[in-house]
Specification:
Length: 169
C-alpha cells in the first residue's frame, strides 16, 4: 500500500502547526498568570548558540509553507521575519495554515519523482526527488524546529506535555 505525498505532508504540517499555535497560547497565558515578561519566553533558547523561541517558530512556519509549495510547483511565499510578539507568531502560523490549505492533493501527489533543487547555483546545491525532499529533509527540519520551540517553553516552566505537542490527530 502506498501513501500519497499530500497525505504524508499537508495533514502533518497542519496538525503540528496547530499544536504549536496552541502551545504558544499556553505560554502566553502562563506569562500573564505568573507576571512574566513575554519576551522572556520569546527570546529564550536552550543553549547560547541556538535560535530563540521566536526564530524557531518562524523557521517551523517557513518549512511548513516552503516544502508543500515546492512539491506543488508553486511559488514559496516570502515572509519578512518581523514578528516580535506572541500575537505576531499566531498570525504567522495562521497565514501559513491558510497558504497550505490552498494547495490541493492533485498539486502535490505527483511530486514524488519531481526534482527539487536546494540552494541552486551555489556550492551547496543539492538535488533531491520530491519524496526524498519531503521525508528525508523537509519533515525532519520542520519537526526539529517545532520540537525545539516546545522544549524551550517546557524548559521555562510552561506546563505542556506530549498531548500538547501532538495536538489533534
Amino acid at each position: 500500500m502506498t501513501i500519497s505525498m499530500y497525505s504524508a505532508s499537508i495533514p502533518v504540517f497542519k496538525q503540528m502547526l496547530s499544536a504549536l499555535n496552541d502551545v504558544l497560547a499556553k505560554a502566553e497565558a502562563h506569562a500573564t498568570e505568573k507576571k512574566i515578561d513575554p519576551n522572556a519566553f520569546l527570546q529564550a533558547r536552550l543553549f547560547p548558540d541556538m535560535f530563540p523561541l521566536l526564530r524557531q517558530v518562524q523557521i517551523a512556519a517557513d518549512f511548513a509553507k516552503s516544502v508543500p509549495a515546492r512539491l506543488a510547483g508553486a511559488e514559496v511565499p516570502s515572509y519578512e521575519d518581523s514578528e516580535l510578539t506572541f500575537a505576531d507568531l499566531h498570525a504567522r502560523i495562521q497565514k501559513t495554515l491558510a497558504f497550505i490549505d490552498g494547495l490541493s492533493a492533485a498539486q502535490i501527489d505527483s511530486s514524488a519523482t519531481l526534482e527539487i533543487v536546494l540552494r541552486p547555483g551555489t556550492p551547496k546545491e543539492k538535488k533531491l526527488t520530491g519524496q526524498t525532499y519531503l521525508l528525508g529533509y523537509g519533515l525532519p527540519q520542520f519537526f526539529f524546529h517545532v520540537t525545539t520551540a516546545y522544549d524551550i517553553l517546557r524548559h521555562n516552566g510552561v506546563e505542556v506535555g506530549k498531548r500538547d505537542f501532538m495536538g489533534a490527530y
